Structures are given as structure tokens and as C-alpha cells.
Amino acid sequence: MYIAVSGEMPLPAQKKKQKRHARRPHRTKLRGRRTNKPVICCVIFDLDDTLYDCLRERVPAAHRHAAQAMVEAGIKADADAVYRARMRAFRNDPMLRYIDAEVTRHFGAENPEAISLAAREAYFNCPVGRLKPFPGSLPLLRSLARRGVRNFIVSFGEPKIQRAKVESLGLDREPSIEKIYYADRGNVLTKEAAFRKIQKRTRLKSSEILVVGDRPAREIRAGKDLGMHTVRLLHGEFKAQKPAGPEEEPDCVIRNIADVRKLPFIWGR
After folding, report:
1. Rounded CA gap, 118 and 109, in Å?
2. Torsion of the alpha carbons at 192, 195, 199 and 201, rounded to the nearest 10
3. 142 with 200, same domain?
4. Which of 185, 181, 176 is closest to 158 using CA atoms?
5. Which of 66, 120, 59, 128 is nearest to 94 (CA)?
6. pTM of the shown model
7. Do 248 and 216 touch, CB atoms closer than 8 A?
8. What is the per-residue pLDDT across 47-100, written as a single tens digit (0 to 9) for each?
9. Does 9 fall in a domain?
10. Longest C-alpha distance within the chain, in Å?
């Protein structure tokens, strides 16, 4: 009896305690790995070619609308011929920097500046028809919201048209989206300025915010400039566009919007 009480021969209860102690390092190691993942409390989504397929659902219609405007402004050709010329030029110039000048030159337009202006305005103001989100967009938004992540959309273009797109997609009525901002071509509100507004509204650190979009020169660059995490969806009219430098290189690249959930982040606190 004396030996057992003195501790020289461990009691059964003491053996059990030692066994539990031996497992602790394994559990601690798992917790340490988990904390290495960034915690994301807010996601900012682009709209076109990020939450829906703009390349297929909008781009052809917008180019047809622009082609008709060019004919009405003075190009001596029918709208179908101008449309085909625009689509050939578009493959080489998805940023639309030289496309109008190239088409007016191709048809020998007498007033290329006025025709180019008419085409550009028609392209960005093409009427919006029925649109549908990517199959994975709404499930992703709702899944993130259930985890306490705050979802925002920042769209670039003609605000009136972008609002019509949002309404057609039903995103203006989607409870999982907290707010939608409209960056415009006149830079009254830039994407970076919209990102700053969101950060001020949420009071989150840059390291807790993720930006998801398809354009390296716009949302990816703006997000990186502000120290946010960035993900590029490799799809759509800007799929072939290469980052101009490290400032446009995303942290991750995905090919399907649903893949956002598979990224190495912890969603919500």
C-alpha cells in the first residue's frame, strides 16, 4: 500500500491521464495548420463574366447594336458586314481600344471619329434582355452568407445598363448580397474607390477581404493595390489578357465560379 500511495507504482487512473497527455501534440498541430489559412469576412465580386456569362449572353448583341449604329452614322455597308468586321477585330482587341478605328478604316469611312463615337455609345448602351447567372453563382453567394461572409458586387460600365443587367439576373433582390456599387466609364466612381467604400462600411482589414473578377487590369489590380486577396476567373472576353506585371497577378486562378469555395481560406469568423 505504501508503494502505491508514494507514487512509485502508478495507479490505473494515473496511467489513463498519461495516455491522454500523449495525444495533445497531434491536436495542437492540426489547430496550427488551420490558422495558417486567411480568414475571409467579405467577398467583392465583379459582375460581367464573373457572376454570369457576359461573353455569350451580351457581347454578340452589343456588337450588333454597335454595327447598326455605325451604318446609321455613315459607314457604306450593311449591318451584317460591319458586324462580321467588328467580331474579327474584337478577337484581336477585346479591350475595345482600336476596334472602332480598325472597322472605319476597313470600310473607308469619311467621318471615322463621329462613327467611332456612335459605335462606342451604342456598344455600352445596348438594351438588356433576359440574363441568367452562372449555375454556381447563387449557391456560392448563399453559402458564403450562411457562414457570415458579407457579399458585395462592384460592376463597371454604363450605370443604367449595369443596373438593368443586375435586375435581369435577379441580383438586386438577392438577400445574400449586401450592396451593389456601379463604377462608371467617366470614373466618377472607380473600382478602387468602390473597394475603399466597402472596406470603410465593413470596418475590415484588407487581409479579410477577397476580390473575385476576370480582368487583371481592373478589379485584380485595384484589389492588390489595397492589400486585399485576389482571385481571377479565367473566362470570357478577357480570358486571353495577360497581367501587365506583378501588380496584376492574382493570388489564385479558377475556371468556375463555384471553385471559390475550394480555395484555401476560412470563410467567416
Report:
1. 13
2. 120
3. yes
4. 185
5. 59
6. 0.82
7. yes
8. 999 999 999 999 999 999 999 999 999 999 999 999 999 999 998 888 788 999
9. no
10. 113
